[in-house]
Amino acid sequence: MTVVIPVRDDAALLRRCLEALARQTWAPDEVIVVDDGSRDGSAAVAAEHAATVVCGPPRGIASAAAAGYDLARGEIIARLDADSLPPDDWLEHLLPPLVRDPSLGAVTGDARFLDGSPRVRRFGAAAYLSAYRAVLLPTLGHMPLFGSNMAMRREAWSRVSAEVHRDDDLLHDDLDLSFHLGRTHRIRRVRGAEVGISARPLNVDSAMLLRVRRGFHTVLLHWPRDFPPRRWMTRARSLLGQRAAPRLRFSGAGIEAVPPRHAPARRTAAWSEDVVD
Hints:
The protein has helices at 11-21, 42-48, 61-71, 90-94, 96-100, 118-140, 154-160, 173-182, 200-203, 205-221, 228-241, and strands at residues 2-7, 30-36, 52-56, 76-79, 104-113, 150-153, 186-197, 248-251, 254-257, 274-276. The protein is α/β, with parallel strands linked by helices and 277 residues long. The strands form 2 sheets. Strands 7-5-6-4-1-2-3-10 form an 8-stranded mixed sheet, sandwiched between helices. It has a two-stranded antiparallel ribbon with strand order 8-9. Helix 1 (11-21) runs parallel beside helix 2. The protein is globular and about 45 Å long. The model is unreliable at 262-277 (pLDDT under 50).
């Protein structure tokens, strides 16, 4: 399994995230940190923790995350943000549904705020995610992905990697991925797979307004093709006729796929920077 972390100028929180990944009860096979033009030593922190480091000029989180997914070698690709703090059993809780159920394309978990006032820490993240899901469940017709805590099959990513919007810095990359992945794959919320995140989006009014603006932009970018009633019907037909995903199993090498008769071709990464193991 692979964990992908896009980062820009967040070295201190990235260090905390990577230290938490090193304590996982289910250790990832590789960690890919995509440094989106940082100037604060984020790449050096990633290299210190034996991550594969991908460095490039600032292109936005959508481009950075997609570059990491392209390079992932694991049959399951998990995603965190640099400010995510996963508990030691995060992967142990998040990944089993993907291993057990071949019809699942992706899973997503919950979050809690690590900073802010006591009230924000206690109720803020639950309220934030509840509002996010309340708006997007009817919009998408399924559970939206939460980029700070999610995982998907590599096979599922291969099917949508050429469709996602990589070069639009205004959109929410996890919502964009939800639109594309959800057309042909089931997405499930996994309870108990909670990560800590920063409350920074709630601390500055302009930051929250920008998130709302990005949300509207991402939704409207997919209309009229994904206007809700039309999307629901298209998705229902697609799920009824979809082919089975490769079955996953545990082995001495970690999580691996039982090879299908015709394996999907992998997309070549279109990221023109240095990759350091």
